[in-house]
Write a structure and sequence with these properties.
This protein is 56% helix and 8% strand. The protein has 16 helices and 5 strands. Helix 1 packs across helix 11, helix 5 (64-77) packs antiparallel against helix 10 and helix 14 packs across helix 15. The chain has helices at residues 2-8, 11-16, 21-36, 47-59, 64-77, 82-108, 114-124, 136-146, 149-159, 165-180, 193-208, 213-236, 241-252, 299-305, 307-317, 336-344, and strands at residues 258-262, 280-283, 325-331, 348-354, 367-374. It has 375 residues and is of the alpha/beta class.
């Protein structure tokens, strides 16, 4: 009950539930597998647990760190079941790997090991999407997604002596592994949330046995209220502008119009909102270099380094019909000289949208502007 309470009151789980679908699936698979995982070292590892673990790795290859650590830890602590457990891992793991390679190779039209490509790119090339300091998960990522539940986790580690110590090692190993990767996101450690909520539940359970019931209710209600307020703000206001502008464009653009998004990569939705036929859409491309070019720079970097030159190149290639309109989506004062150029060319601010109070990138601002020009 305590673990359910902490899980249901987590602002982060509420926020991500409709968003990163693959990360939600891996979190659900880990939750189901941990429910089947042996809690005592004399318990055996079941085939359903191994099957779910194999499926989760096939979907998200980086989870191999998670399951290899838990598996090796189990084999060390339970030597009498070592042989049977290894047999189960091979019986399920090898066919899953072979099936994944065959399916990927068929879809790509050539022999492809996505597992290797996935790990290679994330370790060597993910910085193209933004780099973070090595300590980001420790100093910002994990504390942010835990929020108030970090207090309950601290109580569990200080007061409880029966928490699953095997999970502490896998959490440390996972965080250290992802800390090596240059590009970092909250969702990359989302699959650790079931463990975090178990720890938070243990802490809350200890508190419930050492304080009066009325005080316990007050703590639970206060924790829930704080998380509801955070979830409400994050879900309905934070970075809302990039959704609102595309929603408005979906009802205002017509055939022959064009829309250009001069924002950081993937900052706004795209075809998921705008379905009008005959509308030209353009955004800054930040595809990674797959050809091995030296000093490769994707389009977003080129734009922010020299927006005037980028605009000249874009103007020479675009095709806008007579009596058609062009819309430009750009953050206020980012980059500053671009706004002067747009106004000189006859673009006028059509609408302004609030974006965020807390900015996580120097390419963002609190307001998002929609420029419009009719030809």
């Amino acid at each position: 009950v305590s673990t359910q309470s902490t899980g249901l009151s987590s602002w982060y789980l509420f926020y991500v539930s409709p968003r990163p679908l693959v990360n939600n699936l891996e979190t659900l698979l880990i939750t189901a597998t941990l429910n089947l995982w042996p809690t005592r070292y004399n318990d055996k590892v079941t085939y359903p647990a191994v099957i779910l673990a194999a499926i989760s790795v096939a979907i998200r290859p980086t989870l191999v760190i998670f399951w290899v650590f838990l598996g090796v830890h189990y084999l060390i602590k339970c030597p009498e079941r070592r042989y049977s457990s290894i047999i189960k891992a091979f019986v399920i793991g090898v066919p899953t790997l072979v099936l994944t390679i065959l399916l990927d190779s068929y879809m790509y039209g050539k022999f492809t090991v996505v597992f290797y490509n996935f790990l290679h790119f994330n370790l060597a090339g993910s910085a193209v999407y933004g780099a973070h300091p090595w300590h980001w998960y420790l100093s910002q990522g994990v504390p942010a997604i835990l929020g108030t539940h970090s207090i309950f986790i601290a109580v569990a580690f200080i007061k409880q002596r029966d928490y699953p110590r095997q999970f502490l090692g896998v959490v440390i190993a996972t965080v250290l592994f992802f800390s090596v990767i240059s590009h970092k996101e909250f969702r990359f450690v989302q699959h650790l949330m079931p463990i975090f909520m178990i720890w938070a539940g243990l802490g809350l359970h200890w508190i419930s046995r050492h304080i009066e019931r009325s005080s316990l209710y007050a703590i639970v209600m206060l924790n829930s209220l704080v998380n509801i307020l955070i979830a409400f703000y994050i879900g309905f206001f934070h970075q809302r502008g990039t959704i609102s502008v595309v929603h408005d464009l979906s009802t205002s653009v017509q055939a022959g119009d064009s829309v250009v998004f001069l924002t950081p990569c993937h900052a706004t939705p795209y075809h998921s909102h705008i379905h009008t036929p005959g509308v030209q859409l353009r955004f800054l491309d930040c595809s990674p270099d797959l050809t091995g070019l030296q000093d490769y720079q994707h389009e977003e970097t080129q734009f922010y380094q020299d927006p005037h030159s980028w605009w000249e190149g874009y103007s020479s290639e675009r095709r806008v019909g007579e009596k058609s309109s062009e819309f430009v989506v750009v953050f206020e004062d980012k980059p500053p000289h671009l706004h002067e150029l747009l106004k000189t060319l006859g673009y006028k601010v059509d609408r302004k949208y609030f974006f965020a109070h807390l900015l996580v990138d120097d390419k963002l601002s609190s307001l998002l502007l929609l420029y419009k020009k009719t030809f």
